[in-house]
Write a structure and sequence with these properties.
The protein is mainly alpha-helical. 50% of the residues lie in helices and 5% in strands. The relative contact order is 0.18.
């Protein structure tokens, strides 16, 4: 996943800032247990270049008991079918807004930068606050509806 972001950042310099965010953790998958877990996710999701990125995120989330973040609908269905908590970019940005790590304006700027790279998201940056509130993602004190098992939210990378 980190390789995907670096490659995209070469084409779209605005994404370079995402590589420097303090709340993004880079997790190496290099023990035999981690490599086996990664291999299991590759078999489940697929072995295309993009699928390998999702598999690494899913393996790290499973190993660390975290939440995988992807906007790939097929990978999301596979992850949830295997009991993994999986959400998308909008959920992640709303979570960071609720925690005070990100403002709604900054989240909107990230959304617009991603959309400029042809990343498909359900709202523009300007629409983010109303979209996220309507979905129950920005309501402090009331957790949003999250299908699947509940685990501490963490964004993980390979």
């Amino acid at each position: 996943m980190l390789d995907e972001l670096r490659t995209s950042a070469q084409r779209e310099p605005a994404l370079t800032a995402a590589l420097k965010l303090a709340w993004i953790d880079v997790i190496a998958l290099d023990t035999i247990t981690e490599i086996r877990c990664f291999s299991d996710w590759v078999r489940r999701i697929g072995a295309d270049r993009r699928d390998v990125g999702e598999a690494s995120v899913f393996a790290a989330a499973e190993i660390r008991g975290g939440t995988a973040v992807t906007d790939d609908r097929i990978a999301t269905k596979v992850g949830r079918a295997y009991g993994l908590e999986v959400h998308g970019t909008i959920w992640l940005l709303a979570d960071r807004c609720r925690s005070g790590r990100l403002t709604e304006v900054n989240a909107g700027a990230i959304i617009d930068a991603l959309r400029e790279t042809q990343h498909r998201l359900p709202c523009t940056g300007a629409e983010f606050p109303s979209y996220a509130r309507k979905a129950g993602l920005l309501q402090i004190g009331r957790p949003p509806y999250i299908p699947g098992p509940t685990r501490p939210p963490t964004w993980v990378h390979d």
